[in-house]
Amino acid sequence: MNRAVGAGKWFGALDSWAMPQAGISRAVGPKLIAMPQSLSLVVIHVIFSTKERRALLDAATRPKLHAYLATVARNAGCECYRAGGVADHVHLALRLSRTITIAGLVENLKTASSKWLKSQSPGLAAFSWQRGYGCFSVGPTDLESLLAYIDRQEEHHRKRTFEDELRMFLKKYGVEHDEVYLWD
Q1: Vertex 72 angle, CA 133 and 113, to 5°
Q2: What secondary structure letter does DSSP report for 181?
Q3: What is the DSSP code string of 63-108?
Q4: What's the structural domain count of the chain?
Q5: What is the reported pTM?
Q6: What DSSP element (H or E) covers 86?
Q7: CB distance 84 to 67 below 8 Å
Q8: Pair (4, 70) in one structural domain
Q9: Burial 64-91 (b: 16+ CB within 10 A, else e)
Q10: Tens-digit pLDDT profile for the chain (184 aa)?
Q11: In terms of domains, do 146 and 104 share one?
Q12: What is the DSSP code (8-state) at residue 75?
């Protein structure tokens, strides 16, 4: 038998049955068990604002926008636990699909919702989102507090601007940033 030099040192008893040479099959030893699927639980909090933080999302538009964003997320294979926000920004609590990147998901959310918003009212014909976004990982045990936070957006923003809120999250999660490039 032709074995890799030193493999036994690293794999011990495993290398005698788990590392067969090409073209050689063995029925000796324990059965190798392969994981039949890829599993993940990645919960994220996504935040993005209207361009220049303009208060364009009125009280009648917001619930429909939030439902639309949830649908876009679901169509991308993600679970949307909550979508909310105020006149100048949105928050989403999402379970990220294992097959999509955060950047791809946010691009999809922003592009689709921007097109949809433009079709809702002549006053939104020139609507656009800011170029960037904030995204923070959330442990499953913290999901309920995130949902409550999103539900209380109107209350939070009586005292705090979007800019102050985003700075708070950046500080909380230890995200280094340069204010010069933070806003557009």
Answers
A1: 60
A2: G
A3: HHHHHHHHHHHHHTT-EEEEEEEETTEEEEEEEEPTTS-HHHHHHH
A4: 2
A5: 0.77
A6: strand 79-86
A7: no
A8: no
A9: ebbebbbebbeebebebbbbbbbbbbbb
A10: 444 444 444 344 444 444 444 444 455 666 767 767 888 899 999 999 999 999 999 999 999 999 999 999 999 999 999 999 999 999 999 999 999 999 999 999 999 999 999 999 999 999 999 999 999 999 999 999 999 999 999 998 888 888 888 888 899 888 888 887 777 7
A11: yes
A12: H
Residue 164: which residues within 8 A CB-CB, separation 6 or more? none
Domain shared by 47 and 121, yes or no: yes
Residues 1, 56 within the same domain = no
Domain that holds residue 109: 42-179
Residue type, 65: L
Q: Which amino acid, 166?
A: L
Residue 85 falls inside a structural domain: yes
Give CA–CA dist 88/69, Å, rounded.
Answer: 15
